[in-house]
Amino acid sequence: METVQADPSALGGPALFATMSTMRAMRRLKPEPVPEELVEQLIQAAVWGPSGGNMQCYEYVVVTDRQVMARLAPLWKRCVDAYLATTGKYAPEGMDEAAYGRMVAAIEYQRDHFADTPVLIVPCYRFPEPRLDEEGLAASARALGPAGTEHMMNTQTRFQALAEGSCVYPGVQNLLLAARGLGLAANITIWHLMLEQEWKKELGIPDDMATFAAVPVGWPAGNFGPVRRRPVADVVHRDRW
């Protein structure tokens, strides 16, 4: 891991690069409310995000009501506790135990103060029914070949999940960038999926609408700072693996 510096000139790019290089997951939030106009700016930024297939079938549930947040807090606690008891029990490879301990402390703080979260944003998406006909399916099979067609059939679930994600997550990234640009703290989680049906019931989300994240937003209780990531040279494969 290396610390990515925030100086845009050092990064060889515009000020946006500095924004990205200091956009850490910020889990400690002040309880003070976020003005509605800023919340709308976050959603506007999300709507500007590219959408796979340009289908733009996303919707956003925005929670600011204290009573609703208080009812969500026990669900959040159950999901976080389940995560910390399993995947979150061990530090990721390459992360030292002290740094991971600080991250877990922040996760536990957010869990214990979730009812005070000023804003929670839940991106949703309803994937349209595919429009297929026999002629098109036959042409697709010819283009892919027998092996490709079989692989496509065997990986249809994964393909649709990635297709949906490509329609939602670019907008979520825009939302996170906008939050950082406005001085707001935010972090993306998918832990709510462990109890998704209970979350959807509490928020009145239709059964045929899928949820893709839970993004707590508020004024930071700490400071923004440079992120720590693997060096570019360690993750790039030129022309082939």
From TrEMBL:
CDD domains listed in its UniProt record: Nitro_FMN_reductase (cd02062)
Keyword Ribosomal protein: no
Keyword annotations: Oxidoreductase
A Pfam cross-reference name: Nitroreductase
Gene3D superfamilies: NADH Oxidase (3.40.109.10)
Segments crossing the lipid bilayer: none
Family note: Belongs to the nitroreductase family.
Stated name of the protein: Oxidoreductase
Organism: Streptomyces badius
